[in-house]
Amino acid sequence: MKKEEATSKVIKETKFIHALIPLMFLIISLGYTLRYTEASPHIPIIISGMLASCIAMFVLNYKWETILEGILETIKSSMEAAIILLIIGMVVGSWIISGVVPTMIYYGLKIMAPSIFLPATVLLSLIAAIATGSSWSTAATIGIALMGVGAGLGIPAPITVGAIISGAYMGDKLSPLSDTTNLAPAMAGTNLFEHIKSMLYTTIPSFVITMILFTMMGMKYSQIEVDASVLNSILTTLTKEFNITPFLFIVPIITIGLVVKRAPAIPSLLFGSLIGGVAAIIFQGTALKDFITVLQIGYVSNSGNEMVDALLTRGGMNSMINTVALIICSLFLGGVMERTGMLNAIAMKILGIANSTGNLILATLLTAIAVNMLAAEQYLSIVITGRIFKDVYREKNLDPVTLSRALEDSGTMTSPLIPWNTCGAYMIATLGIAPWVYVPYCFMNLISPVISAIYGYTGFTIKYLNQEEVKKPNLKHMFATLLNIVK
């Protein structure tokens, strides 16, 4: 439909080809940048946003003011996440200098064995995320400590990150306290507890497979004996550099308790960083000026033990600046494509294949993943995809709970896999991992959308508004559809 702005120019209808050009440029430029220059993705993303803006202005006749308004609205919607990132940097630095993280690592190394570490990591992250309703809080608290324990046990960091993210996002997905768990049924038009009940059908099989895979990997590492001298060296260094005491667990318990009680995230995390400072002064004898410096630039470990120094040299508000910049660049692109209808054009193209229940669910999953990549925000992936498909599901006789489950299986679960998405950027910065290397080990996140798609083609657990004359889908349609998309 054509619209008119204040000028005499008529805005043209946005078509798939208009959206495809910046999309292809983004894919090609990101591939080249990350592979051959080893640079960060900031520049390719911001240039892709400018290319999309040029197409919108000179081909579709959008005014720059209209585009800018969309950009600013999109960035504004994620400013809370950016502030949380900066505060998380403060929390990390605070909890290291106070001895909280070293204490968690110390006791973790005392009780953990390589054979059980990975499945235990999934379970601990799952429990924390269900309790707090936040995968971010989980990664910023026990996630950081688990990274240290894994390193001490000889577990590669990408695998540990995969276990943390698998558990954290499963818990986030199922927790009634989670923002996305409430947002998805709201967008689909169903209620919270029906939504959670429906998600169990895809989540439990994904969880079982995930636990089997991590257990098998844990058995592999149990064959490799942990070097006792290395382990003892880490423990000795920690006790030398910090006053290790169980009383320091009070700091994370209070912080997590605030989140569980649904206190606002920003004040809760800021309070967590400040009580870390109190603990640093009481237990470590830290000077106030040193604590304030750590909040800004992070903690620098000079213990002489390379492994301990690598684990504990991190945190501070400055450590998150690059990640915040990446998020803003990504939201710049997402804002342009959302305001000018390019995201909608891509979704409509995908929707064109939805001639069966299986194809419709697959289209939903692919749309949410595409929005996660292009708009770089999991909330937008749920909101935009839910808005596009809500009426279509009702027209196809599908219960809204089927849509809400698909939104979470794709929008929520794939968001940490994309380095420039707010969730991916957060996990990379918080857990200190390189982009992409952890993705193959995020079993829960990779398996969930696949199982959701299979259910769509088999009809298993698919709920209809009217069960009469429901045609059972065929799994062959899924492969034919995927082949057509590739072509």
Low-pLDDT parts are 1-7
The biggest sheet amounts to:
2 strands, antiparallel
Rg is 23 Å
User: What is the strand tally?
Assistant: 2
Give the overall shape. globular
Compute the number of helices: 23
N to C succession of SSEs: EEHHHHHHHHHHHHHHHHHHHHHHH
User: Structural class from helices and strands?
Assistant: mainly alpha
Give the integer mean of the pLDDT values: 86
Which band does the percent of strand residues land in? under 5%
Can you list the strand order of the major beta sheet? 1-2
Distance between the termini: 29 Å
Overall description:
The chain has helices at 16-37, 42-58, 64-77, 79-97, 100-111, 114-132, 135-152, 157-174, 179-188, 192-222, 228-241, 250-260, 265-284, 288-297, 306-312, 321-339, 342-351, 357-374, 378-395, 400-414, 422-431, 443-458, 475-486, and strands at residues 3-4, 10-11. The protein has 23 helices and 2 strands. Helices cover 74% and strands 1% of the residues. It has 487 residues and is mainly α. The relative contact order is 0.15. It starts with a strand and ends with a helix. Helix 6 (114-132) packs antiparallel against helix 7, helix 9 (179-188) runs parallel beside helix 19 and helix 22 (443-458) packs across helix 23. The model is unreliable at 1-7 (pLDDT under 50). A two-stranded antiparallel ribbon has the order 1-2.
